[in-house]
Specification:
Number of helices: 3
Oligomer: single chain
Order of helices and strands: EEEHEHEHE
Largest sheet: 6 strands, mixed
Strand order of the largest sheet: 1-2-3-4-5-6
Distance between the termini: 32 Å
Number of strands: 6
Shape: globular
């Protein structure tokens, strides 16, 4: 299974999909007009990861801003991770924030998942 890296743009976050480390990370802004086109291949990569490995998975989300269409697809991605957690696979979701709006979004998302979910203040780092 190959690892993938997508550079950030003014509309898409940087994305790292590291198969060897079991790491999915997002960093930057997600204000894409076609969130499905952007996020669907990432969800497919995660599905392949779960089907081809027994490794644990950590998802790091460090957004500056996320629009509503991106949130819908991020929720789909996290639901996929949650299903594996329910099956017994070790997973972790880390939501990094540096302002109140991003914190509130993370707290809202955390409230609907039954998987290890951490809110991490980057100002404390």
């Amino acid at each position: 299974m190959e690892s993938l890296f997508l550079d950030a743009t003014n509309k898409h976050p940087e994305v790292k999909l590291d198969a060897k480390e079991g790491l999915v990370s997002f960093s930057g802004r997600s204000i894409t007009e076609n969130a499905k086109k952007f996020y669907q291949p990432i969800i497919e990569w995660i599905d392949d990861f779960f089907n081809q490995t027994d490794l644990s998975l950590t998802v790091n989300l460090e957004f500056e801003y996320v629009n509503s269409s991106s949130v819908v697809w991020i929720l789909k991605l996290l639901k996929r991770v949650e299903r594996e957690s329910i099956k017994g696979r070790t997973v972790a979701i880390n939501w990094f924030y540096d302002d109140e709006d991003i914190y509130d979004a993370g707290e809202d998302i955390m409230s609907i998942f039954n998987a290890p979910f951490n809110l991490i203040n980057v100002a404390d780092s």
